[in-house]
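Quick one:
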Amino acid sequence: SSDVCSSDLKCYNKDNTFFGIFVSNKDSNLKPLFHVMQKNIIGVDLGATSGRVILARAGDDRLRMEELHRFPNRMREIDGRFYWDIHALYEEILRGLSVAGGRGERIDSIGIDTWGVDFACVDPDGDLLGLPRAYRDPYTDGVPEEFFRTVPRESVYAKTGIQVMNFNSLYQLYALNREHSPALAAAEHVLFMPDALSYLLTGEQVCEYTILSTSQLMNPRTRELDGELLRAAGVDASLFARRVMPGERVGVLRDEVARRTGLGRVEVFAVAGHDTASAIAAVPAADECFAYLSSGTWSLMGIELPAPVITEESCAMNFTNEGGVDGTTRFLKNITGMWLLEECRRIWAKEGRTYTYAEIMAMAAAAEPGRTRIDPDDEAFAHPADMPAAIRDWCRGRGKVPPADDAALVRCIFESLAARYGEVLDNLRGVAPFAIERLHVIGGGAQNDLLNQLTADACGIPVVAGPSEATAIGNVMVQARALGLVGSLARMRDYIRRSVEVREFLPRTK
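Output:
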């Protein structure tokens, strides 16, 4: 405006959060133009079963979020192989962005997070080469053991600090080379899923740090790709695009996307592209003395550290060191989570039994406790055709009483997960350089009161549940910081604490 001149002041609070702009009037007195500059931020949060496009309004003392569009995401099976339909996901993202554009919303930035390890291949002309393979595709079954004949298991862990899981990007690349994949052979770059989708939006190819850290290709100390592992997998470091950190600018919406969505040339930022990294950034903790449990299709349980922990002990326990916001390390363990229940619900629906979430909670609460527990991480539950049958067969094979009905199955799953969380927390206590005083449960599982109480009982410490939308919150808050609205990670968490409601579950004495 004509009132704005060179003497205007941008003002920040002591915690480096943006306060507002003061402008000079013609009487040389300062007056507030507005107290806080609101930013409208879109977070695209994609999980293995669903995706969302969320509009966040940030700028005052609370974050306000609105879901613009929700859509399913399922693997596609083609000739016995499993893929992600990246083109369908892209179309759904455009639909969500178009909702904002159709309302005339002024959008300041967009960011995308997804699950880890999976990637798309891009040819020298910039075209996607087929559909990305899905991490549950059995083409990597047994591949780690074959790979270890070239680079021993202990050496792979010492180089990367990443737990061995057959679907890690390292083994996917090795498997693609072994099957002579024409897509990989023709690729100029591979782009991890959030980077592939931001490429479709902007035309800019990047490799975001937190998503790369899931690949088992990166040295977490140097944050560089490991040459020996790349050679053993049959690829070169040039296959990966320029590296960016959370909060760095990727580009702006392509002209075609800007017109189609009605948003104009909005900036796209790299967020913590791995959904768990975004979720952990949103833990509403007031200090460092906590463990976290990101509870969804997968359960990821760990602690936040300033540096990786790569020891014989952490290798034996198969813990992983993944990158977080501000260069932190997410020292964690992958645990099979609500995948068990989701797959049971899928089979029950095929058999004509459809339960609401409330009905499932009531079933589990009414079922007899303490009957049977399973190992949630057993390979038998990785991708069975019939999850209820797989659980019963597992029990019979070990002399356990199989769950008698659907309610008993749900109770078995919840009690087994809680027991597993207690075991993993005990392992974390032996590593943490601080006393773990509480467990923050974030993600969809934060809404499961029964499981949260069982977890508090198994872990022996208070469970703080919420926010359930942690991944989306972490996504938009990294963008908010890039836009100058908040300073450090600690201040981000202060802001989140003011914006969300949590519930506390205290361990019951036995």
